[in-house]
Amino acid sequence: MYSIETLQERMEDNQNEEKAQKMAQYMRNQFSFYGIQAEPLKRIVKEHIKQEGIPSPDEIHAVVKALWSKEEREYQMVALRLVDEYIKKYGIREQDAALIEYMTVHKSWWDTVDHIAGKHASRLFAEYPHLLQTVGKEWRGSTNIWLRRVMILFQLKYKEKTDLQLLEDIIRENTGSDEFFINKAIGWILREYSKTDAEWVQDFMDRNDALSKLSRREGLKYIKKHVN
User: Fold this and answer.
1) Torsion of Cα atoms, 61 then 62 then 63 then 67, to 10°
2) What is the rounded distance in angstroms from the CA atom of residue 117 to the CA atom of residue 47?
3) Average pLDDT for consecutive 10-residue bins of the chain (228 residues)?
4) Burial class of residue 192, CB neighbours in 10 A (0-12, 13-18, 19+)
5) What distance in Å separates the CA atoms of residue 119 and residue 92, rounded to the nearest whole number?
6) Phi, psi of 25, rounded to the nearest 5 degrees
7) Which residues form a coiled coil (predicted)?
8) What is the pTM of this model?
9) Whole-angstrom Cα distance, residue 64 to residue 213?
10) Distance CA 86, CA 69 (A)
């Protein structure tokens, strides 16, 4: 059975109260922290994997949920990294969509959701595009803003492989939202894609006057700086 007991011991041994308070404040005091910064946490994960290995396909869902249930935010960061390594070793399965959804809707904030969108959902839909008509459609229509943010952002690194009609449809579905994290995500995906096709992004904005000021401002940053 996969164990996270020694992981907890390592976390507790590396806690820093002063840094923990600052990290909690940065995250609007939504989560508790041990105060372990990125590089030390990376070493802890590496040591843990060396000792316990990477959870198998039969274990990964239970291990992630166990880590997600813990109070300190660093445990969710560890869970994300274990999923990264799991995907590298075993690939991703259709049924892992349920795990992606679980991580997205529980203890939701940009730090976990953006990682999930860019590394997990992106891989899922790239390998199983038919899931866009089932899982993807469900997430697009969800009242949960974080699932909708995942659908806006999962193509963030697709570049020339971006499905432009899908992207356009998803953005239009979310246009008019007063949610900061939705409008910010729209601007982010447009800005990122403008590095691949600035003309398309500019044309899309010209055709969509209802885009929020935030989405428009974020989406045009690269174009204004790099494109004459």
Assistant:
1) 100
2) 26
3) 95 97 97 98 97 98 98 98 98 98 98 98 98 98 98 98 98 98 98 98 96 98 88
4) buried
5) 11
6) -65, -40
7) none
8) 0.96
9) 37
10) 19
